[in-house]
Design a protein that fits this description.
Helix content: 55-70%
Number of domains: 2
Structural class: mainly alpha
Number of strands: 0
CATH class of the largest domain: Mainly Alpha
Order of helices and strands: HHHHHHHHHHHHHH
InterPro entries: Mitotic_Regulator, Sel1-like, TPR-like_helical_dom_sf
Protein name: Sel1 repeat family protein
Largest sheet: none
Length: 264
């Protein structure tokens, strides 16, 4: 008996593949909806595959899911296909194809697709620059309540790009963009408030913007907050600089501004 036990203990136990960790309920609900063919959940599941801590990143599979939604005529599916082709997520970059995807999204009533097409058109990415067409795209999105487009519509009015310059109307649209949750609109609205001497109100908008702001806006915020000195918010300035460090960017109080050029 002892020899039998020793022989058994000496055998290699076959290794079992570990079970994949269970997804959080809200993510599993999205996955199940996608498997059932629900268009919104199909796009959301593709976004999970693009950038989620819960599953391995799989941009090729994400593009496949977005294509399923796009083939069903779902605007956000077209828009996310456009993002994939614009940035090379799961495919080779193809700016012309990205533009066609955004056009299809806009035609299906997706305001993010309309906005993204406006960006390509304004900056001449994958096509010739056409400010008049870009303005029309942003204005349509604005009329449909798209906050990020409101910020760019305001910029057209402020700078007088293909429209009569109207800085008063521009400030009003920056405010609406800020109220709609766009961090660029929040920064631009805060800047206007500082110019009007409403520093406390401006700081409130910058405290909202710092959460999602990209590096160019953070650098501009760093400049503005530094210039305010003791009238500003030292904790907010530190948060701005922490976010820049997280991005691998050296914070600086030197003059750095957000480009006013249509191609910037």
């Amino acid at each position: 008996m002892k020899r039998i036990v020793q022989k058994f203990l000496g055998r290699k136990v076959p290794t079992r593949r570990p079970e994949p960790p269970a997804l959080p309920p809200q993510i599993e609900e999205i996955r199940q909806g996608a498997l059932k063919g629900q268009h919104l959940q199909i796009v959301q599941w593709g976004q999970v595959l693009l950038d989620s801590v819960y599953v391995p990143r799989d941009p090729v599979a994400a593009l496949d899911w977005f294509t399923i939604a796009a083939n069903a005529g779902f605007g956000p599916g077209h828009n996310m296909r456009g993002r994939c082709f614009q940035f090379g997520w799961g495919c080779e970059k193809d700016l012309q194809l990205a533009a066609r995807c955004y056009e299809a999204a806009a035609a299906a009533g997706d305001e993010w697709g309309r906005y993204n097409l406006g960006i390509l058109t304004m900056r001449g990415i994958g096509m010739e620059t056409d400010l008049a067409r870009a303005l029309d795209l942003f204005r349509t999105a604005v009329n449909n309540g798209h906050a990020k487009s409101m910020n760019l519509y305001a910029r057209f009015l402020e700078e007088g790009w293909v429209v009569p310059q109207d800085r008063g109307a521009a400030l009003d649209w920056y405010r609406k963009s800020a109220e709609g949750g766009d961090y660029r609109g929040q920064h631009n609205h805060a800047t206007a408030l500082v110019d009007a001497g409403k520093i406390d109100e401006a700081l409130g908008w910058w405290r909202q913007a710092v959460v999602d702001a990209t590096s160019d806006i953070l650098l501009a915020m760093d400049q503005k907050l530094t210039a305010l000195g003791p009238k500003g918010d030292a904790d907010l300035l530190e948060r701005v600089r922490e976010r820049l460090k997280e991005m691998g960017i050296s914070p600086s109080g030197a003059a750095v501004s957000v480009s006013n050029s249509p191609k910037g």
